[in-house]
Amino acid sequence: MGGRFPGVVALVVAGTLVALCAGFGSALIPVKAVLLNLVSVAAAFGALVLVFQDGFGARLFGLSGPLSGVFPVVPILVFCTVFGLSMDYEVFLVARVAEARRAGLAEGDALAEGLARTAGVITSAAAIMIVVFAAFTLGDFLLIKMLGFALAVAVLLDATVVRLAIGPALLRLAGRWNWWPGGSVASGRRPLLQFPAMSHRSLPLALLLALDPGDGAHPGPLGDAAGARIFTDLGRSALVIDLAPLDLPANTPHHELAQPPVAMLEIPADGSIHGFRVEVVDSAGRELPDELIHHFNLIDPDHRELFLPISRRLLAAGRETGPVRLPGLLFGLPLKRGEHVVASGMVENLTSATYRRARVRLVMDFTPAGRPWPLFRASPWQMDVAFPVGDKSFTLPPGRSSRTYEGSPAVPGRIVGLGGHMHDYGRLIEFVDATTGEVIYHAAPVGDSAGHIASVPVSRLYGLTGLGVHITPNHKYRVSVYYDNPTGQSIPDGGMGVVGGLFVPDRGVAWPAADRTDSLYQQDYRHYMRLVGGHEMPLRMLMPMSAHVGAHEHGAAHAHREKPTP
């Protein structure tokens, strides 16, 4: 064994170097990957000797004391297994960073994006492997006990200290040299080898996962706007919506442009989404400047809002929103094949360049059905102080004033996070259980140096001790916003007050379907389909998956009030 072990190591290392060089076109990344893998293997060997040969903690594993050595077959089995697992995690991370670099992100931003997209999957996969390997130590067979202990220690260290700390730090330090001497990122060409977004399928974890619905991009129907499309991009674990292409002449504001038509599209596959980003791309799919985006809205016409009988708002974003992402292992918005979404957007081009056949694109982080995650079905929700349908801003009177609205949810469940949005001169926004008086959310805005509102705090209501605040249909809930307008004059469209966030229905409770015969549903439908003029506008708040435009249930159980505040 001793004579063959170095040859095995050399063969594995050489094969890895060649594969990674071909895959990334880089000299540094393969060397770094091999060195980090060897660190994980060395740590496993060290822990193995420390416990079984030197006797530290040996009694925890049913041993009376130190052994004279370890079985000769253990090192080679540990090396091959750990090297393969470690390399999988490394490729998964670096491939996502390289993808972000090709999309135009800077080195630091690309690294953050890669970590955000892979940390959860790496950690969950490693956790399962650690549990499996640790179970080996519970048996009486000493060889299996050694093997399980070494593998569990190696995976634990590799998936935490090595892969999510040391590895990213080295990538950050190397910067553009990561891709020398001219790999796929630097040159703009595609790599020789493609590493799919779910490259961890080579692990035994794959035994626990269902197969993906298909093996590539699946175009959806065009809907009612020729040229719009929806498809799954399994290479990026994404569900993508492209609005119809249009030309963007230079120096043209949004009100002088022919905007892309509203598109009704059909979901092509079962799954869930846990994040999104909006971009504008050219005819070749290259990303264009963010400043071309004015806003984007996605609406579900098949289901109702939590507090209203109108169509459910799924997400909204503007140029300042940036990527939005939920903890994908915990929460996901479920989507079913055949359900519909209505996509709309607005663009403008104040730059000096003209762009031909540009598309507004929504890229949603997508988990195919059949995975053991997300743990909770979640949906965006909102509640607004304005009248149910239409634009949400209102005339702000001089001095102190407040505006409120009350309503009841359609289904019981838990609010796991929420934030708010208001305009300048806003002083306070809150969301309370009007039946019991419990304050669920109470926030004062954060102003910038010019006195304008820069942000409104966001509350995360879940943690290790519990999941959110429970709300029920037999209670009324109130949103209130308070203003102090010092100008002495009324300000048209100067007021707004909306709270929104993430809602998890009670177990076994289905999200209610929309009643298409409801008068508010029909009025709202005409509004967002632009049949009566106007555009949906994005909610500029920090809570993930929140939308801007909302409306609230009509009838005796719902009312809004506006009053001066002394």
Strand share of the residues? 25-35%
CATH-defined architecture of the largest domain: Up-down Bundle
Structural class: alpha+beta
Rg is 27 Å
For the termini, the CA-CA separation is 87 Å
Write the layout of secondary structure elements.
Blueprint (H helix, E strand, L loop, with lengths): L4 H20 L3 H26 L19 H30 L4 H30 L5 H33 L9 H4 L30 E2 L9 E5 L4 E5 L3 E3 L14 E4 L4 E11 L11 E12 L6 E8 L5 E2 L5 E5 L4 E8 L7 E14 L7 E2 L1 E6 L9 E3 L2 E9 L5 E10 L3 E8 L5 E5 L2 E2 L5 E3 L3 E2 L1 E2 L2 E2 L1 E3 L5 E9 L5 E5 L1 E9 L13 H10 L30 E6 L2
Parallel strand pairs: 10-13
Antiparallel strand pairs: 1-2, 2-3, 3-12, 4-12, 5-11, 6-9, 6-10, 6-12, 7-8, 7-11, 14-28, 15-27, 16-26, 16-29, 17-22, 17-25, 17-28, 18-19, 18-26, 20-21, 23-24
Helix pairs in contact: 1-2, 1-3, 2-3, 2-5, 3-4, 3-5, 4-5
In short:
This protein has helices at residues 5-24, 28-53, 73-102, 107-136, 142-174, 184-187, 519-528; strands spanning 218-219, 229-233, 238-242, 246-248, 263-266, 271-281, 293-304, 311-318, 324-325, 331-335, 340-347, 355-368, 376-377, 379-384, 394-396, 399-407, 413-422, 426-433, 439-443, 446-447, 453-455, 459-460, 462-463, 466-467, 469-471, 477-485, 491-495, 497-505, 559-564. The chain is an alpha+beta fold.
Protein model, in words:
This protein has 566 residues and is α+β, with helices and mostly antiparallel strands. It has 3 domains: 5-208, Multidrug efflux transporter AcrB transmembrane fold (Up-down Bundle); 218-372, Sandwich (Jelly Rolls), CATH 2.60.120; 377-564, Jelly Rolls. Helices cover 27% and strands 29% of the residues. The chain has helices spanning 5-24, 28-53, 73-102, 107-136, 142-174, 184-187, 519-528; strands spanning 218-219, 229-233, 238-242, 246-248, 263-266, 271-281, 293-304, 311-318, 324-325, 331-335, 340-347, 355-368, 376-377, 379-384, 394-396, 399-407, 413-422, 426-433, 439-443, 446-447, 453-455, 459-460, 462-463, 466-467, 469-471, 477-485, 491-495, 497-505, 559-564. The strands form 7 sheets. Strands 1, 2, 3, 4, 6, 9, 10, 12 and 13 form a 9-stranded mixed sheet that branches. The longest helix has 33 residues, at 142-174. The protein is globular.
